[in-house]
Amino acid sequence: MTCADMKDSSDDSFTMTIQIQATFDLINVLSPFVTFEKIPPQRRLYYTVDGVKMCYLIRSGLIKVRRDTDEFVMTTLPTPNIAGITDMVPDTSGVYLELQTEGEIATLTTARAQQLIAETNSWELLAKHITKVTTNLFNNNIIMTAPTTYEVVKFHLIMLMREPDSVRETTSAVKYILERTRLSRSTVMKMLAQLKQGGYIQLEDGILVTLNHLPARY
């Protein structure tokens, strides 16, 4: 599927992060074997700690997935969720979870999580969870490699509009896009100004208030 094949409206389901029941069920299966703690905002949770791969069972919280070399925001992690239950993230990636709000999270090693999967015979749930993760990674890659700057901006505006109010009402559209792309500030600001002038979006003090039917092309 190419970007040209996607719908033009802000209801485009392509940009929605997929959540499935299997992930929720897997958390429920593993919960009796772990201890959940309240983790404060701004805490960083790395996928690898001292050479050991870590797994996080996340019941609640608003979480960004970031890269420590440049603070690039790779994605926003929907919750409830499980991070690090496979060996998909390289040890040297520097990828970590950053809590935007307090979260309820259980921490264990990936090896222990996989042991619990075996003991509870939860392989089918794990397979479905991994399928969801892979699909989300594929969708995110298509967004990041969109052929035009406008399509990159468009997709991120749609994603911002779908964020919880606590994120959307406190994060400027410019900051949200710049954290997640390699676009220049001047390019993003110019494009947002023109979309606002055309009545396609409503911004108040930089905050995205309304997202109307976005044009197919810029």
Structure description:
25% of the residues are buried. The protein folds into 2 domains: 13-143, Jelly Rolls (Sandwich), CATH 2.60.120.10; 148-211. The chain is built from 7 helices and 11 strands. Strands 1, 3, 4, 7 and 9 form a 5-stranded antiparallel β-sheet that branches. It has a 4-stranded antiparallel β-sheet with strand order 2-8-5-6, with no helix packed on it. It has a two-stranded antiparallel sheet with strand order 10-11. It is of the alpha+beta class. Helix 1 (21-30) packs across helix 3 (123-144) and helix 4 (149-161) crosses helix 6 (173-180). A hairpin with a 2-residue loop joins strand 10 (201-204) and strand 11 (207-211).
Beta-strand portion reads 15-25%
CATH architecture of the largest domain: Sandwich
Number of domains: 2
CATH topology tier name of the largest domain: Jelly Rolls
Radius of gyration: 18 Å
User: Mean of the pLDDT scores?
Assistant: 87
| Number of DSSP E strands | 11
What is the string of SSEs from the N terminus onward? Answer: HEEEEEEEEEHHHHHHEE
Query: Residue ranges: pLDDT <50 for 5 or more in a row?
Result: 1-16
State the distance separating the first and last CA atoms: 20 Å
Structural class: alpha+beta
Biggest beta sheet attributes: 5 strands, antiparallel
Overall geometry comes to: elongated
Q: Enumerate how many helices there are, as a single number.
A: 7
Tell me the helix content.
Answer: 25-40%
The CATH class of the largest domain turns out to be Mainly Beta
CATH superfamily of the largest domain: Jelly Rolls
